[in-house]
């Protein structure tokens, strides 16, 4: 008996169209959602920066500040320009403002959604003037010069005869510690001794020349014991120099030892 084997007929399976694949349409949907969100955040008018609000400025021009900021708002994605509030580089804007406006000590920049930048300015406060030659500048509490001014301004004048390096507005020209000492000395002379300092010259690290309004000088060591030097000044003014003769003084030396040598202008008379 012959056994016959039969093969199943070969069937060609039709490939399913990609358009009938649900994962294809899911991917398309995800891309559409991402594209829509991307456009909404970075190109829609809702989040384009339209307002810049500046507060705290007094000397600095608000218009100049806004002009600088507006130049930094535009960004490009591929070939398309945008001023989206999400893309603006706040740190770069802050750095540019501090570099261009020496009168500003601190600045805070915040986003005010959906289309506003809020700028809070803290300007430098002048505590003294710093002079070289005929040029004087306002000096803040950090020892930074930030604005040219008149030598006659009603602030203590500090003249640095020690450092002749070039300088620019916005730079530190005197160490904060020395500045604090000078301001304390000025305050004590005015309040405790009724002496009005006209200018204070930094000759070198261990010598200040303080010229008074009566046109005589005090030589003082800022690195020494300031209280002891002022005690010597008090003693010599009370015990040896009558108030009516102060105008005749040339100088009082406070830097050395326990004595306070002094000299009058009109003669060789001196105290030892």
How are the secondary structure elements laid out?
Elements: H1 22-42, E1 51-55, H2 62-71, E2 75-77, E3 80-82, H3 90-100, E4 104-112, E5 116-123, E6 128-132, E7 135-139, E8 145-149, E9 157-160, H4 176-192, E10 197-204, E11 207-212, E12 217-220, H5 226-239, E13 249-253, E14 262-264, E15 270-271
Rg to the nearest angstrom? 37 Å
Percent helix, as a range, is 25-40%
Return residue spans where pLDDT drops below 50 for at least 5 consecutive residues.
Answer: none
Number of helices: 5
Give an overview in words.
There is one protein chain. This protein is α/β, with parallel strands linked by helices and 272 residues long. The chain has two domains: 48-123, Roll (Ubiquitin-like (UB roll)); 128-271, Rossmann fold, CATH 3.40.50.11690. The protein has five helices and 15 strands. The protein has helices at 22-42, 62-71, 90-100, 176-192, 226-239; strands at residues 51-55, 75-77, 80-82, 104-112, 116-123, 128-132, 135-139, 145-149, 157-160, 197-204, 207-212, 217-220, 249-253, 262-264, 270-271. The strands form three sheets. The chain has a ten-stranded mixed β-sheet with strand order 8-7-6-9-10-11-12-13-14-15, covered by helices on one side. It has a three-stranded mixed β-sheet with strand order 1-5-4, covered by helices on one side. The chain has a two-stranded antiparallel ribbon with strand order 2-3. Strand 6 (128-132) and strand 7 form a beta hairpin. The longest helix is centred in the first third of the chain and has 21 residues, at 22-42. It is rod-shaped, with a radius of gyration of 37 Å. The N and C termini lie far apart (150 Å).
């Amino acid at each position: 008996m012959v056994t016959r084997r039969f093969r199943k007929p070969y069937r060609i399976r039709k490939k399913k169209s990609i358009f009938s694949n649900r994962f294809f349409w899911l991917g398309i949907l995800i891309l559409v959602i991402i594209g829509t969100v991307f456009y909404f955040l970075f190109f829609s008018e809702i989040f384009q920066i339209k307002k810049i609000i500046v507060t705290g400025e007094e000397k600095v021009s608000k218009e100049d500040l806004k002009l600088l900021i507006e130049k930094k708002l535009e960004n490009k994605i591929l070939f398309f320009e945008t001023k989206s509030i999400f893309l603006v580089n706040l740190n770069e804007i802050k750095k540019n403002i501090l570099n261009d406006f020496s009168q500003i000590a601190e600045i805070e920049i915040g986003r005010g959604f959906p289309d506003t930048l809020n700028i809070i300015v803290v300007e430098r406060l002048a505590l003294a003037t710093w002079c070289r030659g005929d040029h004087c500048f306002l000096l803040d509490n950090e020892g930074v010069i930030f604005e040219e001014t008149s030598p006659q301004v009603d602030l203590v004048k500090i003249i640095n005869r020690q450092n002749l390096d070039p300088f620019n507005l916005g730079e530190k020209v005197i160490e904060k510690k020395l500045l604090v000492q000078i301001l304390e000395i000025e305050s004590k002379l005015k309040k405790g001794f009724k002496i009005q300092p006209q200018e204070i010259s930094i000759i070198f690290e261990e010598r200040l020349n303080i010229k008074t309004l009566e046109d005589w000088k005090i030589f003082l060591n800022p690195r020494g014991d300031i209280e002891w030097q002022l005690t010597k000044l008090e003693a010599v003014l009370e015990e040896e120099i009558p108030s009516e003769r102060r105008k005749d003084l040339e100088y009082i030396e406070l830097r050395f030892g326990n004595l306070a040598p002094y000299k009058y202008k009109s003669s060789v008379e001196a105290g030892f």
